[in-house]
Every structure is written in C-alpha cells, then in structure tokens.
Amino acid sequence: MSFPLLTATAVLPALGAIATAAVPAARRTAAKWLALLVSLGTLALAVTVLLRFDPDGDRYQLTESHAWIADFGVRYELGVDGIAVALIALTALLIPFIILAGWHDADPLETGHKRWRPTQGFFALILAVEAMVIISFEATDVFLFYIFFEAMLIPMYFLIGGFGDRTHEHGEETAATQRSYAAVKFLLYNLAGGLIMLAAVIGLYVVAGNFSLTEIAEARADGSLDMATNTERWLFLGFFFAFAVKAPLWPLHTWLPNAMGEATAPVAVLITAVVDKVGTFAMLRFCLGLFPEASKWATPAILVLALISILYGALLAVGQRDIKRLVAYASISHFGFIILGIFAMTSQGQSGATLYMVNHGISTAALMLVAGFLISRRGSRLIADYGGVQKVAPVLAGTFLIGGLATLSLPGLAPFVSEFLVLVGTFARYPAVGIIATFGIVLAALYVLVLYQRTMTGPVKPEVAKMPDLRVRELVVVTPLIALLLLLGVYPKPVTDIVNPAVQHTMSDVQKKDPQPEVEAAK
Amino acid sequence: MENLIALLVAAPLLGAAVLLCGGRRLDAVGHWIGTVLAAASFVIGAVLFADMLGKDAEAREIGQHLFSWIPVEGFQADIAFQLDQLSMTFVLLITGVGTLIHLYSIGYMEHDERRRRFFGYLNLFLAAMLLLVLADNYLLLYVGWEGVGLASYLLIGFWQHKPSAATAAKKAFLVNRVGDMGLSIAIMLMFTTFGTFAFGPVLESAGETSEGKLTAIALMLLLAACGKSAQVPLQSWLGDAMEGPTPVSALIHAATMVTAGVYLIVRSADIFNLAPDAQLVTTVVGAVTLLFGAIVGCAKDDIKKALAGSTMSQIGYMVLAAGLGPIGYVFAIMHLVTHGFFKAGLFLGAGSVMHGMNDEVDMRKYGGLRKYMPVTFVTFGLGYLAIIGFPGLSGFFSKDKIIEAAFAKGGTEGWILGGVALLGAAITAYYMTRVMLMTFFGEERWRNRATASPDQPDVEPAAEHQGAHAEPHPHESPRSMTIPMIVLAFGSVFAGAFFGVGDRFMHWLEPVTGHEHGHPPVSALTVTLSTVVVLVLGAGLAYLHYGRRPVPVVAPRGSLLTRAARRDLLQDDFNHVVLVRGGEHLTRSLVYVDHTLVDGVVNGTAASVGGLSGRLRKLQNGYARSYAVSMFGGAAVLIAATLLMRAV
What pTM does this model have? Predict the structure, then answer.
C-alpha cells in the first residue's frame, strides 16, 4: 500500500492542533512556533500533492478507500481532482500567513483584565479548521464530507466568539456581546444549512444506496441509477442550500459581515478565504456532479441570486463605515462572481470560478491582513478614525493599496484573470447577465478607492501621527502574498493547467458544451 | 530585432520596480535611474525605428511572442507584442516626450521629498503606456489600458495630503472604470463572435459577421475611448486631474495617455469601417467634445484647467477625424503627434511659469511675465502659434487636414462637422490668445499682493516651493527645465511641415490604417483660407477682450454661459446631484434594508421553522447545548433512516 498522502495532509494539522493545545500555559511562544511549523509542514505535504498530481491523468487521483461504517455504506474515501488540489494548496499556503499575522492576537491582555486568553487554544483551533477544510476538499464520500463540513463549525465558532480585536470603540463588554452574537449567528446559519443538507444526504442514500460520489455519478451516467426529476431537484436544493449559506449567497449572507467584523483579521481571512471556499467548491463537486439535471434546472434562479450578490454586496460595501465589514461585503460580491462562473456552465466560467477561489483567497488575505495591522495600531475598525496614514506609514499604505487594487481586479494582478474569465464565460451563454455583472467592476473601484482615500490620504489625523510602519513580521506576511498576486496575474498557467482538465470533467458531468463563436476567425 | 520589443517595456518597468521597492537608499540617484531608463527605452525605440525604415512599407510589421498568458479551454490570451508603423509612432512619441519630461521633472520636483517615488510612478506609466500600444491583442491592451489608469491615479493624487488631489485621483479612476466596462464588453463580444480577441484574426475576419455586432463592438470601444480620452460624456475627470504635478499633466493628461482612445479607434479601423452608425456616433462625440472643451477653455482662469479644456477639445478633433474613417485616420494620428509636441510644451511652459510664481495658477494674478521668463515666453509662444494653427507651424498642417476631411464626409453631415471644426478653430484661437495675453502681456498683476490666494489655503510649502505667501519674484527656470521646453518648441514648429509636406506621414501610416483621399465640396484652398480667417477673428476678439482692456484681478461675474463654462458646463453638478447624492442615498438605504429587512426576514423565516431567533435572543446560554442536540439529533435521524432502509 502506498503512503496515504491525502490522509497525512489532513492528519498532520489535526495532530498539530492537539499538540499545540497540550503545550503548557507558560510556554506560549513555543506553542506559536509549533503551530507555525506544523502549518509549514502541511504546506510541504500540500506541495507534494500538487507535484504528485498529474493533470492529464485520472479524474480522481491519490485515492484512498477504506470501509468505515460498513452497515450504512459509509466509506473513508479520499481523492483529489485539479480543483481540489488547487484549493488544498491555497489552504495550506494561507494558514502559515494567518498564524503569523495573528501572532499576538491571542496574547494575554496586559493589565487589569479578568479574561484569560488561551493562546494555545487560538492556534490549535486554526490548525483544527485547516485539517477539516483539507479533508472536506479530499472526501469523495458524501457522508465523510458532510461530517467535516459540519464539524468545522465548532472550532470556527470558538475562534469568532473567543478572540476579538483587542480594543473596541464601545468597550470590552459590548465587544464581547457583539462577538458572541456574531459567533452564534454564524453557527446557527450554517447549522440550519447543514441540517437541511443532512436531510438531503439521507435522501440521497435512500435513492442511491451508498454515499460514494464516484459510484453515484457513474451509476447516473450509465443509467443504472434513475432519479425521478422531482427527487433530484429536492436533493439538489438540500445540498445547494447548505453551500449557499456557507459561500454565502444573497440573501443568506448576513452572518458574514457580523462574523468578519467581530473576528480578528486573521480569523476573518480564515472564514472568507478558506472556510467559505468549501461552499463554492462543493457546488462544483457535489451539486453539479451528483445532480446535473437539477443544476441546469435551477441555473436561472441561481444566476439571478449571484447577480444580486455581486451588485448588492458591492453597494453595501460602499456604504460601510467599518473596514472589516466593508471587506466582508466585498467578499459577498466576489462570491457572487464565483457562483456565476460555476453556473454559467462554460469552460471559461468554471475555470475562471476555480481560479477566482484561489485568487480571492490571496487578495482578500492581503487586504484584510494589512487592514488588521492597521486596526491593531489605532484600535478602531471605523474608517472615519483614520486619515493621512500614507504620510506616516507609506509601506503599510502601499501594501494596502495593492491589496485593494487586487480586490478591484486590476489587470496585471491575479484576480483580473479569474474575473475576466468568469465574465466572458458567463457572457458567452447569457450575454445580458454578463453585461449586468460588468457593473460590478465599477462598484468595486468605488468601494476600494473610497476606503483608500478616507483612511490613507488627506491631512494626517493626530491619532495616527505616531503610527509605526509595517514591522518585519508583518512584511513577511504581506510580501509573499503580493508577489503571488503579481505572479499569478502575469503567469496563471501553472494553476489553469491543473484546473482545466477537472473543469472539462465537470462540463461533461452536466453534459454542456461551450457555445461556439459565430465566425471561425483566421488563426 | 523582434526580441528588442519586450525591452521597450521592460526598461521602464524595471525602473518602476527598483524605484518603488528600493527605499530611501535610492533617494539621491532615483531620478537619474528613472530618466536613464526612460531614455534607454527611447534609444531602443530609435533602433527599431531605423530598422523598420530599412524595410519595405508593406513588410514593416514585426511581432514578439513571449508566452501563453491565460490558457483555458476555448480561450487563448498571450503575452505577445506587435510593432507596426502605428505602434512605432506611439513608441517614439511616448518615449521621446517621456524622456524630456523625466528630465524636466528633475528640476521641477527638486524640492519634493518624495521625488524618487514620483519617478517610479512616471516609469510605471511609461511601461504601461508602451504595453498598451505594443500589445497584439485586446486583452493585453486592456492591461496597459488600466496600467496607465493606475499610474494616472497615483500621479494625480501624488500630493495626497491635499484632499482635492486625492478626490481628483479617485474620480479619474472611477470615470475611467465606466469606460473600462465598455472595453470589457467589447472584448467579450469579440470572443463570442470571433472566438479570439487578437488584433490580426479579429480585424481580418471583421467582414464575416453582421453589421449589428460590429456596431455594438465599435460603440463599446468608443465608450472605452471616451473614458480614457476625456470625451463627452465621460470628460469630467480631466479638469480635476490638473491637481497632479505639472509634468504629469504634460505627459499623461496632454501628450500620451489621453490620446489612447484615439489609438484604440484607429487600431480597430477595420471594425469601425464596417459600422457606419458607430462612425457617425464617433464623429458626433468628437464634434461635441471639441466645442465643449473649447468653451470650457475660454472661461477658466486656472492656466492648467484652461489648457485641460484645450486638450479635451484637441482630442475631440482627433476623435472626429477617426470617426470619419479612412479619409481621417492618418490625420487623427498626425494631429495626435503634433499635439503631443505643442501641448506638452505648453504645459511645461505653464509649469515653468508656476515655478517662478510660487505655484500660482490663477492667470488673473499673472501678467507681463515675458520680461522675466524669456525662454518660457518664446517656447510657450511657439506652442501657442502651433496650437491655433498659425500657417506653417505644426497645428496648421494637422488641424487643417482634419477640417478638410470633415467637410469631405459629404452631405449635410459633412457641412455640419466641417462647420463645427471650423468654429472650434476660432474658439481655440480665442482661448489660447487669452491665455497668452493674460500670462505674458499686460499689467503685472502679481505685484503688491501680500496674501496667498484664498481659494488655495492648503498649499503646502513642501509641495513645490517655499513661501507661497510672499510677493512672487518671477524668474526663468533652470536649464533642466528649459531644455525640454526648447526641444518641444522645435517639434511644435517643424513637425507639421515635416509630416505634411509631400504627405510623408500619410505614406508612413497608410499601410496600417489605410487611406482614402477625401473630396471636400469646396476646394482645399478655400478650407485653408477659411481656417486662417477664423483664426484671425478668434485671436482678434481675444485681443479686444484681454489685450486692449485691463484684466481684473477678481473675475467678473460673467454671462450665464461663462458661469456655466467655469463649472464645466454644469456636468459636474449633474454628476454630483444624480450620481454622488443619488448613490449615497441608495447605499444608505441598502445598508438599512440589509440590516432590518434581509437579516430580519431570513432570521424570521428560520424562526418560524426552527425557533432560530429565539435562540439568537438567548444567545448567552445554551448555545453549545443546542448545537450538540442538533448534531446528535441529526445523526440519530440519519442512523434511524439508514436502519429503516435496510429493514425494508
């Protein structure tokens, strides 16, 4: 038996989480270093997965399969396609930066505070989330996926509810209340989605008799498993609802601004750049893979919701007074683009959507982590509390601007490639939808540049006059992210090469062909 | 030779990277690094130009394919360059004028503590602009297109401690984004129609699709051009863009970037040629803008804003010419090049005046400066004569051809367009004479003025010069500033004749853009004579208003039209009321709706199903229990259901 690489990639951070939690309370720094090392080790494993994966090989590779709960046909089945590989790489890449950026977020408060801040717990929880996210990307057994899809809510709940910003404009008590509200809202929304999915998971078992993604998809393709139209639609809706809460799609999005606003910036990145990607990923893998006909049936409605997300999220971002909530609404707009690309059902749309998941992860991490550095200096999330930062901290302002430019999909940076692919892929099948979505690029410029103008330019506010520029640790976080944004903006081929074949499989799942150009132009 | 093309872009890009990442260590030499790399790019361009001249007119296009950029099923975008006569013209203009303006900026920005960064941005601009004109497909052009937009944003807002500069930068970027929507949609249309967006295949097979599609593509390209080239209705950002340092206004907002829209239209000639409706719209946009800009230019007292109105107007001429099709393309580009010389020269002259006048921009506080700044006066004066189309100078050759071509459009349209172009020439003569007289002639209105201009309380001494509060002591600028002005003045004088005599420029560009000789309904001589007559009328009227009468230091109230023109013909007020205020109300109400309605309804729905809101209210207690109950309840249901299934 070959080395179970996929299991190892998920188990390492899981063990790391336990080990980190077990570090004695006094050895706080050791726990941080341990967590960082584990996350780097996981990154090394993820890179190995990336290298071992053959884009032109089988659809699912590095597969592992063991009987688990034999009586119910539940198997421990893992396997990755190009989409999963890309997202595992993204996850493993971002976690070390999240840990490093949150280095001091869980330090005990200096003076006069009763609350104990469990440093070890903070880093252990991050690693636990990483482990669960990775195994969700790997699972090809629906039940196995469901378990971890749900289970990651628990560490996320404690990360949101337990570790907010160190200072708050309304004082510590209000902050604690708002944090627990955000955490509970996050939990209940996702739980509601999860319970509906559970019903659909059971329903799927009733119809198919097992939980194996590959077996069910094969049986559906060769006609041995016949699903009544209505059954398929109900099951699809059950799955989709859970993923739409997590992604999140309008109107199920309202938990995200609360959660991202109250959580520390690194945890906010964990939510939007890592955990939420499981939702959009699962739409591609489970909704389209298991219920192709129902997916096509639901497409018009989903496209409309995605369009609303794009424009509504962007407009709401323009209206925000809080930096982190602004980024949250921007993310809602971006998730609209991702979902649009998935359900446009064209090669460009789906490759673009997958690339979008990766790029959005990097660009949001860059913007949000720098925003976090900014907020930690001034102790306020309100945009109005800043002004003229560019003059006192030019490097911070410069990196913030680049993160912002990536968020508005400036050509030359990575998100442009994916956003344009999504737009062109959507336009090819639904021209009107593509054109309306294009308005998103104007609104994105608006919320990014307004944010930059209000915080970074103008006369220097007295409160920021002494603000130090980025420190070495912070530069170590930001510089590689920016380098990646530039690199993948100019040379995204390494990612598209991995993703393209997987997208072709998905396209054949739903039996869709790309619209052909009207004129076959001379090459 | 092909392999040199990438170096054209790489040299300034390297400069930008080094200067922006290099840190304080490079403060002492940064401006020289930037200037040398700009000059290097110019030298490479000259080498390529010499090589190109050695080839037959039809075999001059060369290309360089670097690598595959976005390889996705059915979609191909490459990092690849194309250098033909049209691109070459731009390369020489961009790097030539660009290098001169780098040189000028060494002196102009000498006292600015962030000079290194300024040169980094300038280099970034050069790289992006060269990418724009060298790309061999529309998507890569888009990268350059937004790259120049970014550089423009950074440079307009260079003094970002001034809120007005930061606002102007943001506005320029946003208005351009509206245009970018047009470019995006045009590329998407090309993709669905032709399966590609590379220049070669798209333009060659343009004839194989319907006129409707081509019209749609052309109109979307026009929208993009309107944004970048400040044409009506997307012109509102250019006046505000004058917040940037003056060398920026000269390079980006006069000579090069703002002409990118004209490049886009001429580059897409094969599409426009087959879409007559779009061409008509293009000519109308050009004609309206050339009047709009000229009228605004007459009313502004800020020397840079008057010149900005003029830029808008002159680009209107180019867009008008480009809309005329093969009878106008060559002249659009020819005017673009000559305009590049004289307008850049005029802006540098304006900068030189400001340099000697404590950064004063109000022409009502100038006067009689010719004695104190002889070089500036002469070079500015030559630029002035060139732009109004004084016979024999650059503007005369290029603008006259456009007016002629407008008449040659034929029919009523021809008469209207020609008439507008002629009227524009008269107004141009008027406002430029006004600028000239208010600045260099008449009373010395800057004397005995102890206070700073009240409308600019936030000018910081660090910005350009110390002591904006004292009476100015006008003086000539240093050599590094006057040399570029002299070079550009040479271009203003001789470029037109060099291009125009023997139709040299036409023969050069014809293989790319195509050319048809237009036949105006009146003889070419009549057109030329009319041009000279309106020039004399316009300049004469300005002399009566500003030469014969004293210029009041405080602007008189003026007629309704004057007051409207001072406010950019109320377009900004419209934008403010409809877009800014309207947008604020929209986002505010949406924030409210999101908080109460969407959140409320979703929570409420959930509450009616599962008592969610009750739990939300009692969030402090029992959350873990309820979660655990749900999880285990769910699992129990699952197991029960499975067992049931097995039993059946």
Answer: 0.91
